[in-house]
Known about the structure:
Blueprint: H1 2-34, H2 56-84, H3 89-99, H4 101-114, H5 119-122, H6 124-146, H7 151-156, H8 170-181, H9 183-199, H10 213-238, H11 240-243, H12 248-274, H13 286-312, H14 332-340, H15 343-346, H16 348-351, H17 353-367, E1 372-373, E2 379-380, E3 386-388, E4 394-398, E5 401-402
Antiparallel strand pairs: 1-2, 3-4, 4-5
Helix pairs in contact: 2-4, 2-13, 2-14, 3-6, 3-14, 4-6, 4-13, 6-9, 6-10, 6-12, 8-10, 9-10, 12-13
Amino acid sequence: MADLSLLKQQSMNAVLLFARSRHDSDKDSDKDSKKICPQENTTGPPLVPFVGNLSFHSFATILTGASAVFCFLAIAIAISRHAFNYTNRIQQRQVIRIILLVPWVSLFCFLMVWQEEAGEYLVGSLDFGCAIALSAFLLLMCDYVLASPGGYQSLLGDDPGRPKEKTQGLAWFKRVWYMSLQFIPTSLILWVVTCITLASDTYCAASNSPHFAHIWITVIKGVVTVWAVLADFRLYKQQKAVLKPHNMLLKFAAFKGIIGLNVIQTLIINILLGSSVIRPTQHLTYEDIKVGLPNLILGLEMPLFSILIIFAFPVSPYQKRGDGSATPAAGPLVAVVEALNITDLLSCFVRGPMRLVRDQQWGIMRQQSMPLEGGGGKAHRGSGRRSHSRNGRRSHSRGGRRDPWV
């Protein structure tokens, strides 16, 4: 009996050990499965020509290429008009940077349709281009404010140490400044990280597991984009009385709508593709739907945005007048070089916002920045007094004393 009881106990222990090992192996397999990127179903029926002898991929490549050529020509004309009427280099270099977003997006849409397998490597280019445009838009708004009467004090508050409102003062302005300009380095870093994780098979767009980089990059990208957009809106809201006559909301929608539409369209297509509402057909492969289709749609929208952005950023306020009141500050080649040289944006974290604003204010006073046409059609030029010390250093004066924020 003792042997039988011992045998039964050993059997029970063996069963428990087996069950525990099975449970542990199931847990390990679940953990391992979360670390494995799920394979997307890319199978479809044999392909047949979409139009004539052209496949959908070839047809989409031709369409986006033609659209890109139109955008390049339209924006080249717009830039040349600004370059030949370069009467306000401070504002117009920002304008040229903003309108360059259209050919930038058109070019990469064409590349992503043409080389679909490299689409995920190139998609970060859209965010980087938008980051340059958003930062240039912030500096453009700062220039409009500085060119108005009392603009320097209006931008920073009467006393930067003790602002009257939460939306005034040096600390508030610095928050807005860095919230907007952080988008340039972060978008570039995220683009590089995306390429690295794609190459190392740790990106996995088909999974939202924290084991892969896709979910982290998506969340961080969403946060930094919202920060940048909100920063521009906060400055506009604070200086609405000064900026509204410049149709800033139209200007903002003309270029930011490009990326906004792309996000919405890509999201809808990915949802439909993931739920098998749309699937590969005899004309469309999986890559055609996932990469080619959203970029084709965005590429075809670019000619409309090119026309809208030309109307939103007209050259008429900067054109030479018969009375000689507006003469070019530099030649067209200088205008293009200054617009392409974005070191003033990239160095913002080193130089700080006040250094750039002071330079901008100095440029306004030297070049007579474009006036803000307000009530009664009166032209208001940049205000503020500037004194020079013997060694040539500049300082802003208020009642005979040096401003504490300079």
